[in-house]
Specification:
By secondary structure, the chain is an alpha/beta fold. About 30% of the residues lie in helices and about 20% in strands.
């Protein structure tokens, strides 16, 4: 496997990094009990029938493939294959409980794995693909692909919900009716079992093998936004029955997380989920479907299950990350999603995208620029070390709230508390996540304000550099991502 693409760091920066990182460790460093093997191998979940690798069709390729321009598999010596799998799933209510009844299904999984099995780190990332735009979107892959391939994970994306398979004009069966003709989804009441059986399929010993010659040690289930909402319900309700997953990374949805899940669990929140568009409702049932039409972004339809409020304190087996200034989606993530739409749908011009991603019509603001992909990659690293090595992550401060539940902000408008990435510690503007639906906002500082705060451009760059070191030291930013915030800061010249 090719080493992760290295970003150059000046020698003086390496020295300073050692001074900070070597003098303190924000993580607890405790070693927990690590069970041998994956829960999925011994789970009571029935094993589905697997078919593949799949080829042919009108398009001659899978929907949602890894983009050569954004996530080049060749540079990491990875291969991508698609498989179908079929079984019988149990029907569940909106609370996750069995309600009686079962149905046959056939859906698909998209597998990205090291070409050389010896480069596999032992952990599979199983993503519940997002369908908020009525199509399969690999949002955890978009946010985390550099860490996934750079650290030797296997990635498996699952078409778990009906709208992504057949119930929309941009579904798999609509996109390529020949390739995906065998697929059949009975509805989202069966989605939890369909997702769990994918984990079981990874241990098939006969027939087509999604992981040929590879046996996973651990499976981490991940989902973002609507998928996170369903997966949180799965973790809290269904996991105890199935015991098929070894850990959960629940990204960009708010919900209660219980110690009773029994496996390491991380809940990753931005300001959007704390008190913004995707914050939990007050009712006991599922939050009604929410529709947001943003000029330049089109229509998002979001069905979020109301899984309660996050616990106020971390537990033995769960951690909650709250990212100050973060938004549900942001400029950096859109830089991957726009080419994804180009690749799969044709021309993004129909959606009104501009080449520089400055959507002045979207809520009359620029999109959030905090770069949520970066702490996401750090979270993936931490949950892997937790489940594979027993290294418990640190507990981080929560975003402060007012009595009415809104985010407490300083005089400039920055959130107080929480995990504070470099653009919040050494800001060149104000990133907010609870205003414009999904993409938040960024308001650049006036030149006079920058000159008042930082005596020179070098003083600003020094502040960003030190903030970056601090994020690396506390574990919310990877060393490999050192230069990203600094490169962006270099483009700013208010002096």
């Amino acid at each position: 496997m090719q080493p992760r693409l290295t970003r150059l760091i000046p020698v003086y920066a390496l020295m300073l990094l050692c001074m900070t990182a070597c003098n303190g460790d924000s993580s607890s460093g405790s070693i927990g009990v690590i069970s041998s093997g994956s829960n999925a191998e011994t789970s009571s979940v029935p094993a589905p029938v697997v078919e593949g690798p799949v080829s042919g069709g009108v398009r001659g390729r899978p929907w949602g493939r890894a983009l050569a321009s954004q996530s080049p598999l060749d540079e990491y010596d990875y291969v991508e294959e698609e498989y179908f799998y079929s079984g019988v799933a149990q029907k569940r209510g909106l609370d996750g409980a069995l309600v009686g009844g079962e149905a046959a299904y056939t859906t698909r999984m998209l597998v990205d794995r090291p070409a050389n099995p010896e480069d596999f780190n032992g952990t599979v990332i199983l993503e519940w693909l997002n369908v908020s735009m009525e199509m399969d979107l690999p949002l955890m892959w978009i946010l985390g692909h550099e860490e996934i391939m750079g650290s030797g994970f296997i990635y498996v994306g699952i078409s778990a919900q009906a709208v992504g398979v057949s119930d929309s004009p941009t579904s798999l069966k609509s996109w390529d009716p020949v390739r995906y003709a065998p697929l059949s989804h009975p509805g989202d009441a069966y989605a939890h079992d369909i997702f769990a059986q994918a984990a079981k399929a990874l241990f098939n010993k006969t027939g087509p093998l999604p992981l040929p010659g590879i046996k996973p040690d651990k499976i981490i289930a991940m989902g973002e936004s609507q998928s996170c909402s369903y997966l949180t319900q799965y973790a809290n309700v269904v996991q105890a029955e199935h015991m098929a997953m070894d850990a959960f990374l629940l990204h960009s949805c708010s919900g209660y997380v219980s110690d009773d899940i029994g496996v390491p669990t991380m809940l990753f929140l931005t300001e959007s989920e704390i008190d913004g568009f995707t914050a939990p409702g007050d009712g006991a049932g599922p939050t009604p479907e929410q529709v947001a039409e943003i000029p330049g972004l089109g229509i998002f339809r979001l069905f979020m299950l109301n899984n309660g409020l996050p616990p106020q304190d971390d537990g033995d087996l769960y951690r909650v990350w709250e990212i100050a200034g973060g938004s549900h989606f942001d400029k950096q993530a859109m830089a991957y999603l726009v080419p994804f739409w180009e690749d799969n749908l044709g021309a993004p011009s129909d959606q009104g995208f501009s080449s520089d991603y400055e959507w002045s019509q979207a809520c009359m603001t620029l999109p959030n620029q905090l770069g949520m992909e970066r702490p996401t990659r750090a979270a993936i690293r931490q949950i892997h070390e937790w489940v594979a090595e027993g290294k418990s992550p640190a507990s981080y401060p929560r975003v402060e709230k007012n009595e009415d539940g809104s985010i407490t902000r300083d005089a400039e408008g920055l959130a107080i508390g929480g995990i504070r990435m470099p653009p919040v510690v050494a800001p060149d503007g104000i990133n907010v996540g609870d205003d414009c639906p999904f993409i938040g906002s960024y308001t650049p500082s006036e030149a006079s304000a920058m000159q008042s705060k930082y005596a020179s451009k070098q003083a600003f760059l020094d502040a960003v550099t030190q903030a970056t070191f601090s994020s690396i030291d506390e574990g919310t930013l990877l060393e490999e991502d050192f230069s990203l915030y600094l490169d962006e800061a270099t483009e700013i010249d208010a002096w």
